[in-house]
Amino acid sequence: MSTGSKVYIETYGCSASFSDSEICAGQLSEAGYSIVDNPEDSDVNVIVTCTVKTATADRMSHRIKKLSENNSALVVAGCMPKTQSKEIKKINPNASLMGPDSIDQITNIVNSTLNGNPLIELGKSSKPKVMLPKIRINPVIDIVEIGTGCLSSCTFCQVKIAKGTLVSYPPSAITEQIYESTNSGCKEIWLTSTDNGCYGMDMSMDLADLLESVVAIPNNFLIRVGMMNPMHTKKKYNKLFNIFNHDKIYKFLHIPVQSGNNRVLKSMLRGHSREDYVLMCSSFRKKFPLSSIATDIIVGYPTETDEEFNDTVELVKSTQPDVVNLSKYGARPGTKAIEMEQVPNSIINERSRTLTSIIKEISLSRNEKWLGWVGNCLVNEKGKVDGTMIGRNFAYRPIVLKDSDLVLGNNYKVKISDVKATYLIGDLF
Fold first, then answer.
1. Alpha helix (H) residue ranges in 269-344
2. How many domains does the structure of the chain reveal?
3. Residue 179's CATH number
4. Tens-place pLDDT, residues 392-419
5. Quick one: which of 109, 154, 175, 413 has the fewest CB in 10 Å?
6. Cα(45)–Cα(169) distance, integer angstroms
7. Are 299 and 259 in contact (CB under 8 A)?
8. pLDDT digits over 269-295, tens only?
């Protein structure tokens, strides 16, 4: 039933979800399916889901309903099938379910679904998600999954339920994929997983060892190292930051603190302290003064008091992160935190507004340090406004360039002429 059938793929969530989506498209295309851009034109719809936040999960339910309306066959992939399969089946009893570690089964699942036999594949494949066929969303960026699962047990998080314990992918397969993708025109590599910080801990190696192998690949490209939890990063951060010296690695550190209060961090089972986070931030900034630090923060975690929230505010003010992904706590099914005493929504909303305002001020202030800077940037995406392109400098700062003639994947020398809270504005120099 595959040849000539049309598939529409819709994707949500982290960079690993988007990599999964690219691999699904690649495998289905190789099997003879046509990938289409509109669910109205498809024979089967595939939605790669995310359930990390309550608002996101609600949106997933809404999209599953919408994609079920046009009588196309439906495959629900990603994290939601592992965490909320009953809810999906209530919405569409005929939907096939595919977990985040079963994507090598996508062709078989789509075939069966089109034949009227929905499948449920929620197991953990032994096949790494590297060196599989893929159709890239962005032709100059290769999203490379270096592993799945993690070694943490955070009380608020569903990802461990969805992806299980750590499985690091072989460095030889990772470097082979990067060699091939950079040979075929990719200029930027995103190294992603559930938690890059614990990569290799199941194989007697670590992320720095992997990066040593990746930077040795002879092609011309830049590497964005994805999220690393402080719990594991703190053990070998000096070794890791030393390899960040390499010209191929963006001076960009994503290290989610989640709270600035040690009691809350202990309740969350985060495995790090406020002081651990401060030490890593200061060490990174000392080594790379013009760099970018991103973090994640949850406000309104169960039992969080006003004083403990104020500790988070003070941490943000003192460490001045360049990017903060701020989330309002939402209870996720199956997690330990759902059983704790919840903070009222009105208080969560108020704390979110307070911190959002502070974060914007800090982000703008940090960006103002780049005014007048002259240097190279890699144009890696089209801008949201017609006639603009987005480039990234060595610190992974987004630079909006008002020139539609720029070529995706090329480097340009620019001067920063203006800044906003979330991006820089540059002119060709």
1. 274-287, 306-319
2. 3
3. 3.80.30.20
4. 999 999 999 998 789 999 999 999 999 9
5. 413
6. 29
7. no
8. 999 999 999 999 999 999 999 999 999
Which residues have CB under 8 Å from 146's CB, separation 6+? 130, 168, 169, 174, 191, 192, 193, 196, 199, 210
Rounded Cα–Cα distance for residues 44 and 270 (Å): 40
Residue 41 per-residue DSSP state: G
Same domain, 26 and 153: no
Please report whether residue 129 resides in a domain.
Answer: no
Q: Does residue 287 sit in the same domain as residue 422?
A: no
Provide the token pair at 111: 């075939």
CATH number, domain at 418?
A: 2.40.50.140
Task: List the structure tokens of 182.
Answer: 């950079």
Question: What residue type is 35 in one-letter code?
Answer: I
Q: Say yes or no: 180 and 69 in one domain.
A: no
Residues 353 and 379 in one domain: no
Domain that holds residue 380: 374-428
Which tokens sit at 13?
């969530």
Under DSSP, the state recorded for 19 is H
Q: What whole-number distance in Å separates Cα of residue 223 and Cα of residue 252?
A: 10
> Where do we find the tokens 């592993």?
147
What the block records as the tokens of 356 is: 């959002």
- Whether the Cβ atoms of residue 313 and residue 351 lie closer than 8 Å to each other: no
Q: Is the Cβ–Cβ distance between 27 and 107 less than 8 Å?
A: yes
What residue spans of 92-168 are helical by DSSP H?
Answer: 106-114, 159-163
115/151 same-domain check:
no
Q: Does 388 share its domain with 326?
A: no
- What is the SS3 assignment for 339-383? HCCCCCHHHHHHHHHHHHHHHHHHHHHHHHCCCCCEEEEEEEEEC
Q: Is residue 134 one of the residues assigned to a domain?
A: no
Q: What is the DSSP letter of 33?
A: P
**232 shares its domain with 307:** yes
Residues forming beta bridges with residue 392, ordered by sequence position: 378, 398
- Biggest CA–CA distance in the chain, Å, is 61
Ranges of beta strands (E only) in 54-166 are 73-78, 96-98, 120-121, 141-145, 147-148
